[in-house]
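Structure ticket #2291
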Amino acid sequence: MKNAMLCLVIATVGLAYADESTEQLRQEFEARIAALETQSAADSSAPGRETLDFEFHGYFRAGLGANGNGDAMESFKAPNAGAKYRLGNEAETYIEASFQQNFRTQALIDNNVDFYTKLTFAYVTPTTDNNAFDTTTSLREAYAGARGVWDAKKEAMFWAGNRFYEHLDIHINDFFFRDMAGFGGGIEDVELGDEMKWAFAWLGGSIDELDSDGTTYQNNYHFNKNTFDFRLYDIPVGIGTLALSLDLADFAGDQLDDGAGNTITIEDSLGWAAGAILKSDLTDEMANRFTIQYGAGAADNFRAVITAPQGVAIDTNINRIATDDTMRLRITDDIVIDNGSPLSLQAAAIYERYDNGFDTMNTIDWVSIGARPVYHFNDFFSLAFEAGADYTNQKGGPEGVVGKFTLAPQIQPAAKHFSRPSIRAFLTYATWSDGFEGMVAPVGYGNETQGISAGVQMEAWW
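Resolution: structure written out below.
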């Protein structure tokens, strides 16, 4: 089987790979709308605004993969790690479809005002088990926005509803380091001086069955909370632009049934978090982003929803969780080099220290580093290689490294790193420490410390 899979990959060298997260797409959509709002109606080179009343955008990935035994592939992910390197390592079909209606009466156009509504639906089918598919659908976004209504601050936008608000990730491992998506409302893009802007939002967690990266939650432990989010951004600092955030989160406490008739009490908490994001365009083809975050209590996860503490099994051995005692420090850096001729690259590094608030086995360290170079043979054919390693160490618990390596030939429309749609074949090999035996890909490789998977996959957005 292993030889057959290797032959499949070699035989499909002309096929494709590439990667990008939905957040990149959303940023492009927002930039497109913002550009239209500042265009002069007399600019004959610009597309007519009346032709953009309705927009349909989307993202999806789908494919087929198998492990070395011929069973359905599983993802290789380190225990207690916040993410995995995703090339050739995504064991689900995931779809997002966004519908946006722009209200552009002549009076609004004349006054440079925009109103719009947006709906985003999602669908996921995990494929990690041969016959245990748990298909899930979700309403990811349902909100309205208005820009240009404040004459003194024409760029300011008011919004309310359910939104991917500050839904920021590192593309190579789809790690959402700041994820304030949820129900709420606020104002953003309020100019403060010549370049700096500020935003404020009141947010509550969007409670459904899907996590930020499109996978299903592993347990029922996710609760709503109230978060007040304040941001200063587009601050010029010489080498780039700086964004600062401050969050105050209040969780009123709740209870959880563990499924065996036992009740777990999750205590109330008032938490706070602060963060900084430095974006630097080093050249026209090279961009770097550095972040540092600290959070405590109900705000420790830098999200708009309360999620299960890491390093803890939610079972009958626990009857109370002190949310107020948690803490997290996170530092990330990611870089993209995309000159398209002939080599492009993305790379990331992450360090995180987390305290789950328990007396024992409380602290977890996570260190992650990975890179994905892509060699472009011409405008359509390229070859990607991804190598990533995740080290985790829980006090009194498991410690080790998961290394994942993927070779992926690809076809895509242009010789650019994030060009889509992409058709890819992949061959993935992973190895992990003895201390992680039975914890990585447990269905296919439960008694081993290495494994492989191979398959085909497509990814697209528009």
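Closing remark: Residues 201 and 415 are 39 Å apart (CA to CA).
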